[in-house]
Amino acid sequence: MIRKEYTIFEIGIFKKEETESYLEIFPEFFDGTEGLTNNSKILIFLWFNGSDNEDKRRTLRVHPKGNLKNPVRGVFSTRSPVRPNPIALYTVNINKIVENRIYIEEIDAFSETPLIDIKIYSKELDL
């Protein structure tokens, strides 16, 4: 099998403060947020950089939720951050937008996690 490499650009960063979570969009990508509105739903894609190393990328079987009491399963049948490409997907509501910050509901990602994409949620496509 021939492996290909791809380049993924960070478009921003996920940040978590005491009571708020937000996406800080880098200036060169800010125009891409035009059309996003308060109280709308979006899909955000994060790169779980804390789970990005050669060993974790080769791990294909895990205990779900990291709990050794759970039977081992294939990583593609879990939500484990340990996977060949540590991409995380969340569906979130936009609470407010202030300049280059999109405030969202709380998620289980670490602050300073790279943001790699945003897509508008669609009832027809995102069942």
Automatic annotation (TrEMBL):
Top-level taxon of origin: Archaea
Classification via PROSITE patterns: TSAA_1, TSAA_2
NCBIfam families: tRNA_TsaA
Family in the record: Belongs to the tRNA methyltransferase O family.
TsaA-like domain boundaries: 8-127
Cited InterPro entries: TrmO-like_N (IPR023370), UPF0066_cons_site (IPR023368), YaeB-like (IPR040372), YaeB-like_sf (IPR036413), YaeB_N_sf (IPR036414)
Keywords attached to this entry: S-adenosyl-L-methionine
Species of the source: Methanococcus vannielii (strain ATCC 35089 / DSM 1224 / JCM 13029 / OCM 148 / SB)
Protein's UniProt name: TsaA-like domain-containing protein
